[in-house]
Specification:
Layout lengths: L3 H15 L1 E9 L6 H14 L4 E5 L7 H5 L8 E2 L2 E2 L2 E3 L3 E5 L15 H14 L5 E7 L6 H9 L5 E6 L3 H16 L4 E12 L6 E2 L6 H8 L4 E7 L1 H9 L3 H4 L3 H18 L2
Parallel strand pairs: 1-7, 1-8, 2-6, 2-7, 8-9, 9-11
Antiparallel strand pairs: 3-4, 5-6, 9-10
Length: 271
């Protein structure tokens, strides 16, 4: 039975989310496929196009969004309006559990109910304001965090599934697609990350993790294929240095992010 406090929090959550036009989950079937890299760079690409964007880092045990944006040491302010997300130029608002931990080495040793409670608080007590898009960066798999987000946020636009081309990653990414479908959530599409590496010396493309697997899975499961992002050394360097890749580099990978954002725009607008 819901308490009065529960009902008040649910009301705040609905009020906050009513000011967000589009809510998008970014999922991956397994770890290590570059999901957070994709989330961060998609958000910055959207912001560069003039959209007001938020990133909710819902990876409770591995909150890496602040690291990739160079804001690890920032602490959010608190006012009567709620918790203020950290602002990243040009117009990206960020909230992560990493801002609230005692140190970068502090582990989060929580079971499901505590994780769901934290996500609920981030949605209800963070003053997101008016947003064009809220991107929710989720941990790998189909467990507590993605299920909590899917149940808590009304009118989710859908899920983006990030995979790499090799079979073992595709096996798990297909589970994420099925997860979304079983919950009645639209699948915006599949992104194939780490799709080929162009040698900087000779220009030859090497398929380190194969190529085309994400596109084939999208076709097989009847969901959109959003595009493929090649491996580039600068993507790794940018993530480690906290400087968003798409803001600093003009390359094949940056163009891929722009094309993926175009496809997402068309999906949410119903074109």
């Amino acid at each position: 039975m819901k308490t009065e406090e529960d009902m008040d929090q649910e009301k705040r959550l609905n009020e906050r989310m009513s000011k967000v036009k589009h809510k998008i989950m970014v999922m991956s079937g397994k770890g290590g496929v570059g999901k957070t890299t994709v989330s961060v760079n998609l958000a910055l690409t959207l912001a560069a196009k003039g959209y007001e964007v938020g990133i909710l880092d819902a990876d409770i045990h591995g909150p890496n969004v602040p690291k990739m944006l160079g804001i690890e040491d920032v602490r959010p302010d608190v006012s009567e309006d709620g918790i203020a997300p950290v602002l990243v130029p040009p117009r990206v608002k960020v909230m992560s559990l990493a801002f609230l931990l005692a140190s970068k080495d502090t582990p989060v040793v929580w079971r499901g109910p505590l994780k769901m409670g934290a996500i609920k608080q981030f949605l209800s007590d963070v003053f997101w304001g008016d947003l064009d898009c809220l991107i929710i960066d989720l941990p790998p798999g189909t467990g507590d965090e993605p299920l909590s987000v899917a149940q808590l946020i009304p009118n989710l636009d859908g899920a983006i599934v990030v995979t790499t081309p090799q079979d073992v990653a595709l096996l798990d990414s297909r589970k994420s697609v099925t997860f979304a479908k079983e919950l009645g959530m639209p699948v915006i599409g599949i992104v194939e990350n780490m799709s080929g590496f162009k040698c900087p010396k000779c220009g030859e493309t090497i398929d380190l993790f194969k190529i085309g697997g994400g596109e084939h899975a999208a076709s097989d499961m009847n969901v959109p294929f959003l595009g493929r992002i090649p491996i580039e050394v600068t993507i790794v360097e940018s993530g480690d240095s906290g400087i968003p890749f798409v803001l600093e580099h003009d390359s094949e990978a940056a163009s891929a992010f722009e094309a993926i954002v175009d496809a997402i725009e068309q999906f949410v607008k119903g074109d």
